[in-house]
Amino acid sequence: MIRQELKSLLTKLFPRDDIVINQVPKDKEGDYSTNLALIRAARDKSRPLDVARDIAKKIEHPMIQAVTVHPPGFINFEISREYLVKLLFTDDFKFDIGSGMKILVEFVSANPTGPLNIVSARAAAVGNALVNMLNAAGFAAASEYYINDSGRQTELLAESVRQRLIELDGGTAEIPREGYHGEYLVGLAREIKSKDISDLGEIREYAVQYFMNDHRRVLDDFGVTFTNWIRESSIRKKGYVENVLRMLEEKDLVYSRDGARWIRTAQFGDKDDRVLVTRDERYTYLLPDIAYHLDKIKRDYRVLVDIWGPDHQAQIKSLQSSLVALGYKADILKVLIVQQVQLRKNGKVLKMSKRAGAIETLDDLLSQVPRDVVKFFMLMRSNSQHLDFDLDLAVKQTEENPVYYVQYAHARIKSIIRKAPQHDDVPADVTGRYITEPEEIALVKTIVKYPEVLEDAVRTYEPYMITYYLIDLARAFHYFYGTCRVIGDDQNVTRARIALIQKTADILQRGMNVLGVSCPDRM
């Protein structure tokens, strides 16, 4: 990667400094930039521009076409055409920063109390892309769905279904206020009635399995599969919850207050201590969660990545502090908060509420919008940003739709290559001589940045970086295609440009695969 080469070059010259290399915005001069002069000037109490000029004089390398200094003290690098083209045709743009490290990414994990909603769709798209990104970067990443089939929510589900059964028998349903009031339970109740199930425990188990089957089916339709499906009840049956409680008590990390048992998480970074067992001997969410994450660690995963919704943000520190209390490093657990999604149609926000029954499900969305579009749209914002999903734009099958814009670029390249005359591969040093036009060089620069974008996306757990990179790459190709004729009279130029667009197609395909989106050869 060019960025790493520049960093290594500057590190040799200035071994005492922490070198940071950034890509230069498109409207600025150069390709890469460093703030090294600003850091050294602050330390030495010198003028940043003078320091930058002194540094610039010391930098020389065949890959660098020019070094320029910009106020207040940035040093910008322009990469030579020869180096760029050589890199394009000799590098496979694969890299390994993971060294096979095992990472477990848990996502969606929606309570089995109803259909998957749109927020779960975003979590599914992000989690799926994240696993693909990590594996592309050399990690051994696996995906997991945790089924919360124990506790208060499934009890409320069972009682809500039981009330629907009473309603089917001609009575009046008295669904608990905190229960589930949606009409989607009526079909489930009819199915349970047909099987003559009346025991509340059996209703609960049947309802949980019913929705888990539905979740699995819809996620399969969405093109998202999981390495593991783990039930909370299986963790409990193994005695892990009681074992964790015993471990914490042996470490003197549990105490009694007001009839409940508390864990001393405040000693390990939490805002307050937390209740583990209520006064009526119910486990809070925290105790089974600790047990579940210890189970993950026992399976030899080195890093645990959880993708949660914003309503769970307050629980992050409690879980991390609990793991630290048990002797694990805080960074073993990384929790990503994926913000809410709003569906918009005709300029208006569509309301969603599972309990109230006014619900827009992932199943409904996939019946209206192709899954490629849904995934791509769900990955067009940072995890920390709210996302507006424009249904009107999503159903457009034109280049105005960013998904089709990228897919059209790939399909157009494949069409050109099918029409191109047969030719033998030409060595890169020969091919590179004929890639000289500004539009060609701009396309080359965009292609070779792919591994850097992927690395940044992996290190920050942000798939949207790949999404926007692919849009930029498609734009660079369309700009090139609108100016440079690929198949022409000069066979050498034709061969060079065919090789260039083939590289473009390869990276488009690779990036779309990471996102879990198809990249068709024909459209």
Description of the molecule:
- With 523 residues, this protein is an alpha/beta fold.
- It has three domains: 78 residues, Arginyl tRNA synthetase N-terminal domain (Gyrase A, domain 2, 2-Layer Sandwich), CATH 3.30.1360.70; 194 residues, Rossmann fold (3-Layer(aba) Sandwich); 114 residues, Isoleucyl-tRNA Synthetase, Domain 1.
- The chain has 21 helices and 15 strands.
- A five-stranded parallel β-sheet has the order 7-6-5-11-12, with helices on both faces. It has a four-stranded antiparallel β-sheet with strand order 1-2-4-3. Strands 8-9-10 form a three-stranded antiparallel β-sheet.
- About 1% of the residues have low confidence.
Question: Key terms for this structure?
Answer:
523 residues, alpha/beta, Gyrase A, domain 2, Isoleucyl-tRNA Synthetase, Domain 1, five-stranded parallel beta sheet, four-stranded antiparallel beta sheet, 21 helices, 15 strands, globular
Question: What's this, in brief?
Answer:
With about 525 residues, the chain is α/β, with parallel strands linked by helices. It has helices at about 1-15, 35-45, 50-60, 80-90, 120-135, 150-170, 185-195, 200-220, 230-235, 240-250, 285-300, 315-325, 360-370, 370-380, 390-395, 400-420, 430, 440-450, 450-460, 465-485, 490-515, and strands spanning about 20-25, 30-35, 65-70, 75-80, 100-105, 140-145, 230, 255, 260-265, 275, 305-310, 335, 340-345, 350, 385-390.
